[in-house]
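Hi U.,

Before I forget, here's the chain from the pilot set. I'm dumping it here mostly so it's searchable later in email.
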Amino acid sequence: MQPWLLVEDEPDIREMLLAVFEIWNIQCIVHQSSEETLAWLNTVEHLAETELPELALIDIRLSGDTDGITVSQHIRHHPKLKNIAIVLNTAYSLTEQEKQQCLAVSKADHVMSKPLPRFERLYEELRALIQKKAASIPQKQQIEEQSYPPITAPATAPALPARPHFRILPSLRIRPFRMGRGLSREAKKLLQVASLAILGGSFVLLIGLALSVIPLIGREGSFAELYHILQQALILAGLLSAVCGLWFLLRANQRRKTDDLLAQEVFQTLARNLDARFSFISSSQIRSVRGIDALMIGPPGLLIFKFLHLNGQLYQERGHWLTQNRKGELIPLKNNPTQELLSDMNHIQQRLGGQGLSDFPIFGAILSLNDSDQLQYHANEEIFPLVFAPSLNERLKQSYFFRDRITLRAAGKLLEHLQHTDRHP
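Structure:
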């Protein structure tokens, strides 16, 4: 896959886009100024065809003497770059006539207004522009058709069954709690605390019992009473720690069951849009997903879910999450859903790369399991939008369900890999 060119002088937007491109497994040539891009153009002649960008995303208002429109002109007139897709983005509110004038002068293919579309839609729009541009060049069109899966479902896809179901995995069910089986991230944290409390408490308890069985000082003397108090304190502390550990263990078990029930609810919400080509997996079904709340595999690609269990006020701006404490003060959210979802997506992307599935499209969704009456959500420039369960289908129709992107064979290969890893960790 050819790289993309990003020309953006705003650090926050540049870093955010680079993080998203990494998730999409897209190599990026990044420039922070127009001068840097113009200097790079002088070296393009020496680059191989596969090193040339297939798309340029350029900010119109760049620092320096040259704006993005002029940079776009230079790229369009370069012999080796004249056929790439060029997208200009701007914070200005342009009328349709102004956009057409901008396109005519810059020779770009499209103008996007900031804030940019949600990242799932952004990927769709940019990929569609690349394919549209390639369609006018026969040789490159052939390369594109070999590199990217068709937009429509494969002709061999099975007909929709009367009732959606899991393709290979059994339907979700609550299994008896087993140490080390698949757990969500929160359940794993509880299990880790439980393990430390039980092991630490047992160790302290053993020390206390050993001191009572094998006295290190005589039963009489100035330190005898203090020694006795220490023995009893160690035994009591060990017992309390072990009891706390057992309590956390029960919490982890209950959390796993709750996560399974929540995954069932999500599946039931999605059921009318699923058929036999889709597989929905909860964290407890396959331990190899490493704490991911749930994921879905199908012709549109891989969708990773992050469940959010919060009430009250919640704010997000560029991936920074804030909530209110009891005093009404805004404080950072303890566990950042955006960072956790990015971590999950990067982990899966690395695993796919090792299986020859580096081009597998990956999507992410942060899902609130409470309704908008229980959770008041305010956002500005979301990296991942927060989706409320009742509107999940409609939101996914605009992104994940927008089109099929992979073959059934590729989806099956990923599912088989997860199952094999689960059996042979």
